[in-house]
Amino acid sequence: MKNALIVFFTAISFIASAQRSATAAGDKAMQHAASPARVYDAPELPAAFPYGKDSLERFIARSMHLGHVENGEGVTGKAIVVFLVEKDGSIGAAEILRTSGDKNFDAESVRIAKSMPKWTPAKDKGETVRSSAMLTFAFKFR
């Protein structure tokens, strides 16, 4: 019987404590990306995937390719990816904040984050701003 792969993912939208831990983890790519413009960790109106959470989940499920797993019965893991949402909604730098323990799954999680369509950008005090966001990718083979 073939192993089934279940992939769970959650969008974690600008939770202050999570963002503080991202900064504490030395997230220099997020703080000092190519543009010197400020990156907001907790804007008044956070960036959002344009078609809602259900659409984001479908996008991730369709995009996930884990061909490297042959017999992963009972294997579980979770990767947290932090990324920039630019002023135009495009996805900028993305990196692993917390590893799943599987380098291939981590790389696939970053690839998916970078391949997302443009988001609705964040706003702070009425201005469109660059912001950071996080996605949690969790998987379980059974």
Task: Give a nutshell description of this structure.
The protein has 142 residues and is of the alpha+beta class.
Question: Any overview of this molecule?
Answer:
With 142 residues, this protein is an alpha+beta fold. The protein has one domain. 26% of the residues lie in helices and 32% in strands. Strands 1, 2, 3, 4, 5 and 6 form a six-stranded mixed beta sheet that branches. Strand 3 and strand 4 (91-98) form a beta hairpin. The longest helix is centred in the last third of the chain and has 13 residues, at 103-115.
Strand content: 25-35%
Distance between the termini: 10 Å
State the total count of DSSP E strands: 6
- Give helix % range: 25-40%
Shape descriptor:
elongated
Structural class: alpha+beta
Series of H and E elements? EHHEHEEHEE
Structural Rg: 16 Å
Largest sheet: 6 strands, mixed
Average residue-wise pLDDT: 77
Count every helix, treating DSSP H or I runs of 4 or more residues as helices.
4
Number of domains: 1
Extract low-pLDDT stretches: 1-6, 9-29
Please write out the topology:
Blueprint: E1 5-12, H1 16-24, H2 28-31, E2 39-40, H3 53-63, E3 76-85, E4 91-98, H4 103-115, E5 122-124, E6 127-141
Parallel strand pairs: 2-6
Antiparallel strand pairs: 1-6, 3-4, 3-6, 5-6
What features would you highlight for this structure?
alpha+beta, six-stranded mixed beta sheet, 4 helices, 6 strands
